[in-house]
Amino acid sequence: MDSNESESWLIETDFEQPPQVDLRTDRAHSARVYDYLLGGKTNFPADREVGDRVLADLPTARAGAAAARAVMHRMVRRLAEEHGIRQFLDVGTGIPTAPNLHEVVQAVDPACRVVYVDNDPIVLAHSRALLTSTPEGRTAYVEGDLRDPEKFLADPAVAATLDLTRPVALTLINIVHFLSDEAAHPPVRKLLDALPSGSFMALTAGTADNAPDQVPVGARRYAEAGIEVYARSHAEVERFFAGLELDDPGVVLVNRWHPEPGAADGEVSLYGGVGRKP
Questions:
Q1: How far apart (Å, rounded) are the C-alpha atoms in residues 172 and 169?
Q2: For the purposes of burial, counting CB atoms within 10 Å of the CB of 247, is it exposed (0-12), middle (13-18) or buried (19 or more)?
């Protein structure tokens, strides 16, 4: 299913529904701008305005969004197939876009369990409606912010879905570049500390290494809408994996991370990698 579907899909969950909130559709949100760049429909004029300004200065932004989504699929599939991971904690989920993470991993093993975390109420509404599990597995959606991991880790839905004594894959796709080092590194480390040995982290982060003129201009377009973007060097992205054992091929441009056979080798301004907690 994709984000074009109607709200008639809303389903009952085992957990208390959140109260009504102001969706603030007059302000751009990074998840909805990302949805627009992916060609989705769950976005609003404020989001599309930012997306168009970014594309005017950084025409590769749409390809970068698609590449981030594609590498997430490859990363989690590899984690399930090659590393035997059956539990996933996806922070910064974004608007559901098929195939979703749980669909990829449950195609490997229907018993896989996934918790999705995001702080946009629109993402929350669509995720509760669309992210339904196989009978053998389980999915849950938790409202939360990467900057406050203790809060969402304490949500009853997490304990009901994931066994944190067994390995978990933490996925942080296109989220840390919206936070400074001071804001991003402490919560990422707290999340890793909460996971047992044998867990993994899959992460992507924007860079200006291969587009030093265009990427900073695109970042300014986000900043003009109140969304800060921090492009990082290769070494700065690798720092997120400190203490982890990097999976082959390490931290690389995402279109070069285990690419599909015959895939084009174009340039995208995004690094990605997967690391294992010893």
A1: 10
A2: buried
Q: What is the largest CA-CA distance in the chain?
A: 49
Angle (nearest 5°) at CA 269 between 233 and 231: 40
Give the tens place of pLDDT for each residue, 8-18. Answer: 322 333 444 44
The helix-helix angle for 61-81 and 45-57 (nearest 10°) equals 100
In a domain, 16, yes or no: no
Contacts 24+ apart (CB under 8 A), 260-266: 260/70, 260/74, 266/60, 266/63
Q: Which two tokens stand for residue 6?
A: 């109607």
Radius of gyration of the chain (CA): 18
Question: What single-letter DSSP state applies at residue 79?
Answer: H
Tell me if 12 is assigned to some domain. no
- What type of residue is 29? H
Domain for residue 14, yes or no? no
Digit-coded pLDDT (tens) for 141-192:
999 999 999 999 999 999 999 999 999 999 999 999 999 999 999 999 999 9
CA dihedral 113, 203, 77, 157 (to 10 degrees): 10
Going by C-alpha positions, the residue among 165, 139, 144 that lies closest to residue 154 is: 144
**Distance of alpha carbon 103 from alpha carbon 131, whole angstroms:** 9
pTM (two decimals): 0.87
In this prediction, residue 1 carries a pLDDT of 35
Residue 270: enclosing H or E segment and its boundaries? Answer: strand 270-276
- Residues spanned by the domain of 156: 23-276
